[in-house]
Structure to design on (437 residues):
């Protein structure tokens, strides 16, 4: 299985972090269903051209967050993410994105009213 | 993590070359690539790991066996070795005869695996070894080194002479070989892309010394070229960047600085109130070049004073 994870070599963000963010999003969004067997550490490392140390770190971090579980000898699976947890993760990504948008607005010296209008416009554009 | 190969204070003296002292610990379950200019001592190090050459000082442990102590027949069953050059003495041999010879020596030789490897790499083992093309012979020797499912694979310039398709097959094969997670590869390579695709750890060697061993992803994220600019910035100020290896004037108030400590350098830049114009990752050969240059400069400096560190 080839996961849709992309690496930006010019990014200042460390490799493990880039992979972790994307894999977490795939799990909490439900694109990777509960019980899905993930590629082995070596397979994942070879498809992303990174070291097994990096992949091991990502798997361990997400395991500690309860998103993955490893069964000795068989591999690493997507764990069951309960609704509450899923919501928390789901919204965490959205909150982060909105905050970034607000920071960008502030940098461009927008007023609060302007930002409100822009937000409303964006919602209308995508929801109606 | 367990150590598959360990070198402690290893020295090897030849008429006009001194290797070492080398201290290295290569972890099991990982691929470690040794990278360095021609004649840096990679192949000698490999030969010592197999006890084909004795160190003048120090000790080497391979899969928990102290090399040079007692019978190593059993140990050698657990190792696959691809030498840098084919044995000229084998030229008259039919490839299939060499395979039969290997089969006699390796109790765990797997005939099915051997035939599968021949098929995968499109090798015909009917012909004489001396008549094979360089690439074909390389593929055949690689198949031999893998056919007894060794725990440790020592590959000396594995891809020399391979065409791009055969090269890709080899990369896939080696990834498959490592998939179980408990096997180890130690290899040397001149091919940047090969190291990038395969290695977990990279060891740099030059002039018989080890310049350092690094986890691959950390190495690449730490080494960067940063273009920084700021009013009144001078080469001397720019040279104060942590991990600085080289400073070059880049026009206006901009300087190009190579650093081996990117995150510290980034913090320093902010502290100094300098602007980051752009940043680039270094390639493996650029990192090697920077390390070698520094080592050689250091050597010259110390030689003048009559001290060799």
């Amino acid at each position: 299985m080839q996961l849709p994870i992309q690496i930006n070599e010019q990014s200042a963000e460390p490799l493990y972090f880039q992979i972790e963010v994307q894999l977490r999003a795939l799990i909490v969004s439900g694109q990777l269903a509960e019980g899905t067997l993930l590629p082995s550490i070596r397979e994942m490392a070879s498809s992303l051209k990174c070291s097994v140390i990096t992949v091991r770190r990502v798997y361990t971090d997400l395991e500690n967050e309860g998103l993955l579980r490893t069964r000795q000898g068989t591999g690493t699976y997507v764990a069951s993410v309960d609704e509450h947890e899923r919501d928390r993760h789901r919204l965490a990504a959205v909150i982060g994105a909105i905050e970034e948008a607000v920071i960008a607005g502030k940098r461009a010296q927008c007023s609060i009213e302007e930002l409100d209008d822009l937000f409303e416009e964006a919602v209308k554009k995508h929801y109606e | 993590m367990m150590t598959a190969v360990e070198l402690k204070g290893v020295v090897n003296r030849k008429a006009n070359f001194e290797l070492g002292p080398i201290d290295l610990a290569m972890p099991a379950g990982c691929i470690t690539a040794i990278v360095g200019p021609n004649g840096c001592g990679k192949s000698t190090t490999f030969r010592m790991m197999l006890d084909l050459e004795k160190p003048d000082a120090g000790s080497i442990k391979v899969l928990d066996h102290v090399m040079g102590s007692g019978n190593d027949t059993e140990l050698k069953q657990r190792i696959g070795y691809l030498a840098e050059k084919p044995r000229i003495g084998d030229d008259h041999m039919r490839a299939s005869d060499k395979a039969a010879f290997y089969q006699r020596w390796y109790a765990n030789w797997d005939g099915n695996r051997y035939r599968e490897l021949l098929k995968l790499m499109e090798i015909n083992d009917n012909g004489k070894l001396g008549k094979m093309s360089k690439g074909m012979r390389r593929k055949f020797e690689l198949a031999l080194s893998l056919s007894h499912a060794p725990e440790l694979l020592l590959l000396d310039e594995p891809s020399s002479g391979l065409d791009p398709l055969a090269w890709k097959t080899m990369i896939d094969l080696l990834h498959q070989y490592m998939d179980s997670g408990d096997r180890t590869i130690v290899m040397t390579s001149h091919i940047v892309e090969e190291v990038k695709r395969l290695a977990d750890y990279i060891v740099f060697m030059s002039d018989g010394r080890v310049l350092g061993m690094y986890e691959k992803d950390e190495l690449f994220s730490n080494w960067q070229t940063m273009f920084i600019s700021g009013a009144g910035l001078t080469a001397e100020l720019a040279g104060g960047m942590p991990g600085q290896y080289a400073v070059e004037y880049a026009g206006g108030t901009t300087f190009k600085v190579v650093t081996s400590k990117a995150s510290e350098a980034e913090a320093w830049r902010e502290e100094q109130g300098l602007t980051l114009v752009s940043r680039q990752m270094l390639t493996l050969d650029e990192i090697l070049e920077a390390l070698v240059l520094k080592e050689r400069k250091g050597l010259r400096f110390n030689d003048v004073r009559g001290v060799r560190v």
